[in-house]
Every structure is written in C-alpha cells, then in structure tokens.
Specification:
The complex is a heterodimer. Chain A is mainly alpha-helical. Chain A has one domain. Chain A is built from eleven helices and two strands, in the order H-H-H-H-E-E-H-H-H-H-H-H-H. Chain A has a two-stranded antiparallel sheet with strand order 1-2. In chain A, a hairpin with a 2-residue loop joins strand 1 and strand 2. The longest helix of chain A has 35 residues. The radius of gyration of chain A is 19 Å and the shape is globular. Chain B has a domain of 227 residues. Chain B has 14 helices and no strands. In chain B, helix 2 runs parallel beside helix 7 and helix 2 crosses helix 12. The longest helix of chain B is centred in the C-terminal third of the chain and has 27 residues. Chain B is globular, with a radius of gyration of 19 Å. The N terminus of chain B is likely disordered. The chains are: A mainly alpha, B mainly alpha.
Chain lengths: 290, 328
C-alpha cells in the first residue's frame, strides 16, 4: 500500500512538472489558434528555438542560466514578430490546407537549421548548481529542478490569468477571440493585437522549451516529435482560453506519466486513444465553447 | 484562394482519354527497358504515386485535409507483412487481404473522423496515425516492434513469376497495380459521384440543400482512399520484403502531403509528378547533404503556398495558357 502511495506521489509530481511545461508551450498555441483561427503546426519550432537560443547564450555569450532563459524568451518573441509580419499574416484568410503546408514547411526549415547548427544529437543546457540535487518536502525528497519548474510555471499561470482577466489588454484579447469583426468595428486594431499575442505566445513557448530542456530532449526533430502532444493539449482543453490548455496539459502530463510508469508496454497508446474518444464526444475540447 | 482551384480533370470535362494521359505509362515502360538499374527506385516511386493518388481523391476532390493518411498506408503494409509471415505468401492474395482490411479500417475510422470538420478533423487524424504507430511500435510479438518484420516471405506472382534480384517483376507488378488504381480513381472523378465530392468541397451547405448525401459520399471516398493507400503499403512490404515503423509515421503523412502539393492537388496527375520529382531529387540530394535537402523542401513548400498554389502542373498550365494567349 505504501509502495502504491509513493508511486502515486511520484507520478503526480513528475506528471505535474511535465504538464506545466506542456502548458507553458501550448498556451500560446491555444490563444493564437483561437484568436486567428490559424492552424499553426510550427508552434513547436518556437519551443525548440527557445532551447537552442538559451544554449547558445550560455556557451557563446557566457550568460548564466537564468539570464540566458530570459534572453531566449525575448529573442524568440522578437523573431516571431518578424515571421508573423512577413509570412503568417499573408495566410490568415487562406484555407487550412495552405496553413498546414506552410507551417510544415517552416518545421522543415527549422529542423534543417537546427541540424546545421547543432548536429542531430540531443543537446542539454547545463543546469546551475542551485537547481541540482534534491529538495525535501513533507519528509520526501524530490528533484530540485522539477520542483522549480512546477513553482515557476505556477507563477507564470497566475501572471497570465491576471493579465487576461484583469487588464485592459486582456479584455481586448477576449473581445477579439469572442467576436473578431465586432471587436474591429469598435476600433480595436486586431492586426496589431494578433502580432502582439503571437509574440507573447511564441515567447512563452520558448520559455517552456528552454525551461523544459531537461524534460523534453532538445533534438532537431523536436517540432515534429512533440507537435502531437502540443496539439493534443490544445484539442483536449479547447481553443481560445487559458483554462482549456491548462486542464489539457495537466491531464496529458499526468496521464502520459502514469501510462509510462504503470503500463510501459503500451507506450503512449492510451493517451492518444483517450484523446480520440474525447474528441468524438466533444469535438471542441473539454472547455471549448460551442 | 483555395489550393485546388477546381479540378483540371473531373466531371464536366471530357472523360475520353487524352493522348497526354498515356505519357506516364510510356515513361514507365521506357524506364523499364532503358534504365534497368533504376528499377528498385522506380518501383518505390510507383508505390508512392499510388499512395499520393489515394490522398488526392480525398484531399483534392473531397476537400478533406487529413494529417493521418499514413495510418492506412502503414496498416496495409503491416497487414500484408503479418499475413505473409503467418498465413500465406502469395502476393496477390496478400494484396487483396490488405486492401480489404484497410478498407474496413478506413470505413470504421472514417465514420467517426468525418463527423468532424476543420481543426477537430486534423486532430483526430493526427491522433489516429499516432495510435497506429504506437500499436506497431509496442505490439512486438506481431509487428516486430522497432525492428519491424524482416525477410517477409513473398511467393511467386501468379505462381509463375519470381521476384527477382533486379526488381523487374516488382516494377511491373507495381506498375500494373498502379494502372488499376489510376483507372479506378479516374473513372470515379469523372462520374456523378466525383461531381458530388467536388460539390461538397466547394459548398457543403448547398450540397445538403439539394439533398445530396454528403456524409455517405465522403465516407465512401474515404474508405476507397484508405483501401488504395493500404494496397500501396502492401506493395511496399512485398517488394522490399520488409515492413518497419517508418510506414506509419506522422512524418510520412506530412511528406505525402508535400509530394501531392508539389505536383498539384485535385488533378490526378499531380500525384504522378510530385512523388517522381520529390523522390528522385531526394535520391540525389539527400545523400550529399541531408540538411540542405530538408531546408530546400521547407523553403520550396513555403514558396508553393505563397506563389504557386497549383504545384508543378499548375505552373505548367499557367505557362501554357500564356503561350496560347500570345499567339492567337
């Protein structure tokens, strides 16, 4: 019984850490897809870019871990603005096939650049000393790094929620998600809003990718391999909200960890099968609006 | 501006065989006699063309954007492999079993997938290919897991033709199956059935309004496309005597989309041109510098979406039209 309980706690802890990383990466995807109706399969590119830029900032610029994390977040957000203005913006009114193809093209380009720069093998950013080792919570020891991931993501979630629910910018975003043409007709510049939201979402993805580089290995094929998980999180939770992907990320994080712990012989089968069933029951996800 | 601007070939156009439509077959026969060292690669190209053709039926004509078509290709490939290992090695019997199994699988999954639209449909098809991948990966006793099934036994074709080392039998076998699949798809898109598919693609509400059974028609096309994709997968297993996880990957779903779009969507022959150009180019370039090959494909894809939405055949059409206008 005690062994079962400790496995439960362990699954809960690791699943929570994984779910939080999934959330940080996927929340931007949920908002941009909900806001613009854009099928952005290349969202994982920004997460991967976050990891590699942090790596470069640490090895080339000699920045310590935490400033490098911030640097990666800001750099990717700025880079995404250029991409959004030059390429994405042309396809907002295009069909989903064009959007799918364009973003797959972006993934290919990103994979090629990552392989040219870092080779095909997984890379790891060295963790600072204060994130190594174990931390004691209620008589049990947990890895410090994952505890820090959970804590910092919780802070992030709080900031996001306050930002969207309590600020003017949040109200504008919610208005545009609810009814884009109406928001435009009362004078909201949705074009600028898209760019800004896209940048924030990409920056968050970079943060998640860099922060989670020790959980989800940094390889050039990252955008393809992890894409399914990011999309599943968004689809399970529902588009256009902050709560939807949060719920989705927790469910997927805990479910995936539990499956790998208890029934490793089935791999991720149950996670995908459950997603399939859930999407049949609710095509818009758990919290998606009809 | 949708990618497929109405079919270049389809209902309303002439169903009579245009001489240009015989070009691919003449080319294939020329390759058989003139370039025998390319036969294994040629057989692979023919298989992928059949796969792309099946996708063109549902994507180009049906307007169903799927990310999971490799699920059926891989399903057929594994069914053919497992059937040959455990039951019987006859290639045509294996092909028939794979076709029937893929059709059943396509009908069962299509019945649920096609109830949704847009993003939910993309997600369901993506989840589907992931599920098939996990089953192939983890059900080791049957599928061989990550190692795949090696040296799948393949009997003589029609009890008379052995699959030779040079790939002659394999090439002609694939060519014959592709010709059958091509004729089927071609007849279908010229029929009223094909017209109702295109109608649903262009304006679904209006098709409902005139009383067309949109769901039933789409499901029918989806099932057929799944069967054709399964046949293509089975051909790959039989000609290479190997089946592994790469036949059910999401990457393959993406690649087949890329190849079809490269050739041109919703025009049948785009499915011939795209895979040929893609695979031959990859055969040359990927060996020398895989990174630049991937980079090139990515850039090319972005350029196609931005500037040349009809693919290679669309560009050719545009040039031909300009040429006709300039000399009346």
């Amino acid at each position: 019984m005690d062994a079962f309980l400790s496995s439960l706690i362990s699954i809960g802890f690791h699943g929570l850490a994984y779910g939080m990383i999934l959330y940080a990466i996927s929340v931007g995807l949920s908002v941009t897809m909900g806001l613009m109706g854009f099928v952005n399969l290349a969202h994982g590119v920004f997460a991967m870019a976050g990891g590699y830029v942090m790596l470069a900032a640490m090895s080339r610029l000699g920045l310590p871990w935490l400033p490098a994390l911030g640097f990666a977040c800001v750099a990717v957000a700025l880079g995404s603005v250029v991409l959004e203005r030059v390429l994405y913006a042309r396809l907002y009114r295009a069909g989903e096939l064009e959007q799918v193809l364009f973003t797959i093209g972006l993934i290919f380009v990103a994979i090629a650049i990552a392989r040219l720069a870092y080779g095909p093998l997984p890379q790891a950013a060295p963790l600072p000393d204060y994130l190594k080792g174990q931390v004691e919570i209620a008589g049990r020891s947990f890895p410090m790094y994952r505890a820090a991931v959970i804590l910092s993501s919780a802070v992030l979630v709080a900031i996001l929620w306050i930002g969207l629910e309590r600020t003017r910018w949040g109200a504008i975003v919610r208005a545009a998600v609810d009814n884009g043409p109406m928001a435009e007709s009362i004078g909201i510049d949705t074009g600028r809003l898209f760019t800004l939201t896209f940048a924030v979402g990409s920056g968050l993805a970079a943060l998640g990718g860099a922060l989670g580089a020790d959980l989800i290995a940094m390889t050039p094929t990252y955008p393809f391999e992890q894409l399914v998980y990011f999309l599943v999180v968004v689809a399970v939770g529902g588009l256009g909200t902050l709560r939807g992907p949060f719920l989705g990320a927790l469910l997927i994080g805990l479910g995936d960890t539990a499956c790998k712990y208890w029934v490793p012989q089935f791999g991720a089968f149950f996670v995908f099968a459950a997603t399939f069933a859930l999407l049949l029951w609710r095509p818009r996800g758990l919290l998606g609006r009809a | 501006m949708p990618l497929a601007r109405g079919p270049a070939i389809g209902y309303g156009g002439s169903a009579r065989l245009h001489p240009a439509e015989l070009l691919p077959w003449a080319f294939a026969i020329a390759v058989y006699f003139l370039a025998p060292s390319y036969l294994p690669l040629g057989a692979y190209v023919l298989i992928i063309i059949l796969f792309a053709l099946s996708l063109d039926l549902i994507l180009g004509y049906g307007g169903i954007v799927t990310l999971g078509h490799a699920a059926y290709f891989g399903f057929g490939a594994y069914v053919a492999g497992v059937f040959a290992v455990r039951v019987h090695g006859d290639p045509l019997l294996g092909l028939a079993v794979a076709a029937a199994a893929s059709a059943a699988f396509g009908a069962a999954t299509g019945a649920v997938v096609l109830r949704t639209r847009a993003l939910a449909l993309l997600m369901l098809t993506l989840a589907l290919v992931s599920i098939v991948f996990e089953v192939a990966n983890k059900w080791t006793e049957v599928t061989g897991g990550a190692d795949g099934l090696n040296s799948v036994p393949v009997g003589q074709l029609l009890g008379a033709f052995r699959f030779d080392l040079f790939g002659k039998t394999a090439f002609l076998y694939c060519l014959a199956v592709l010709a059958a699949g091509w004729w089927l798809v071609r007849s279908l898109v010229h029929s009223p059935f094909g017209a109702s598919l295109v109608g649903a693609r262009e304006n679904e509400a209006r098709m409902h309004a005139i009383g067309a059974p949109v769901y039933a028609r789409q499901l029918c096309a989806y099932t057929l496309a799944a069967a054709l994709a399964g046949v293509a997968g089975a051909l790959l297993t039989q000609t290479t005597q190997f089946v592994g996880l790469s036949v059910v990957s999401f990457e393959l779903s993406g690649e087949i989309l890329v190849m079809l779009v490269l050739g041109g969507v919703g025009r049948i022959y785009g499915a011939f041109v795209g895979p040929l150009v893609f695979i031959v180019a990859r055969d040359y370039l990927a060996k020398q510098s895989p990174e630049y090959w991937v980079l090139g494909i990515g850039v090319l894809l972005i350029l196609i979406v931005m500037f040349a939405r009809g693919g290679i055949l669309g560009l050719a059409d545009g040039i031909a039209a300009r040429w006709r206008r300039s000399r009346p």
